[in-house]
UniProtKB/TrEMBL annotation:
Catalyzes the first step in hexosamine metabolism, converting fructose-6P into glucosamine-6P using glutamine as a nitrogen source. This is Glutamine--fructose-6-phosphate aminotransferase [isomerizing]. Homodimer. It comes from Sphingobacterium puteale. GO terms for biological process: amino sugar biosynthetic process; carbohydrate metabolic process; fructose 6-phosphate metabolic process; protein N-linked glycosylation; UDP-N-acetylglucosamine metabolic process. It catalyses: D-fructose 6-phosphate + L-glutamine = D-glucosamine 6-phosphate + L-glutamate. GO terms for cellular component: cytosol.
Amino acid sequence: EAIEKGGYEHFMLKEIFEQPQTIFDSFRGRLDAEQLRVTLSGLDSISDKLLKARRIIIVSCGTSWHAGLVAEYIIEELCRVNVEVEYASEFRYRNPIIDENDVILAISQSGETADTLVALETAKKQGATIFGIVNVVGSSIARLADAGVYTHAGPEIGVASTKAFTAQLVVLQLFALRLAQLKGTISDERFKTLIEGLAKVPEQVDWILKTQKATIRAIADKYRGSSDFLYLGRGYNFPIALEGALKLKEISYIHAEGYPAAEMKHGPIALVDETLPVVFIATQDPFYEKIVSNMQEIKARKGRLIAVVSEGDTQAAELAEDYIVVPQADEILAPLLSVIPLQLLSYYIGVERAVDVDKPRNLAKSVTVE
Ligand code: G6P
């Protein structure tokens, strides 16, 4: 096992640090910035269905569901098609209205999650086309799908998903780019910006891991005794707030909630006092000013602000008690960067609290029963 961990203390840490490579692997051979081309033969094989589809339904669970939420924003923005994101466990039991015009995107690391599998079987019987975004080659969901794309993250051992999530985000971005190109809903210029941006992500992730590790560790040490955390983000970073909170719950057993930042006024703000750490994803994007004003509201109530900010930021970093820096990126690519410090923060807090981070209590890597 020590050899498999490659010198890292835990699989989870190894998998977090593998991400510059796994992100690269998930777009390798699929991206050509010079020819303005994204190659996804799985997608092209069902292009007639996708071009006709009135909507795309994403079905998944857990962290994969968060990847689906990010994809909803990206696909709607770039491809101008309606996207719905469903918890597989709810979808399968509520007699959903599906027909042969629907395309279902199934996102699953393991390809074996029982609820996702049954939801897909049900939809397939009703005539829907199933497109799988799966990590484990030859898994049940991969076999059931009519077409698909593998995420190429390699085996993920840590129960809490990290590198599989970022690989899913990459593949979903490629999916949106290719579909947008087929539909003619993206300009060449935007397409080029995004694929060039994506090609830079591995080195940007590497930069975060190398330069922010010590800061994140210190933040973990400082806040490890907290009993609750709130995570807030907007737009493409809203699902990252959910994922940050989920990661913390899973591997530190600290209660954490993720919310869209503006929604905090409808409940979570009541929790804010001088003991509550509030993690804001405050990177440079069209929502930045709004996020900063949400931060001011928390500060006025004496909440402890921790912010993930873009390189060169002043306002959010100044407001925060502690902050972590990530490189600037297009808003569509930003989730790939902003999630990295949140994974690492959870990891260090989990370790400080002596949790078995690779195998947290009560959780399973793959939930193959209902
Ligand atoms: C379990 C795992 C999570 C994972 C979820 C969905 O809860 O602990 O890390 O996100 O299942 O799994 P899947 O394999 O379908 O992505």
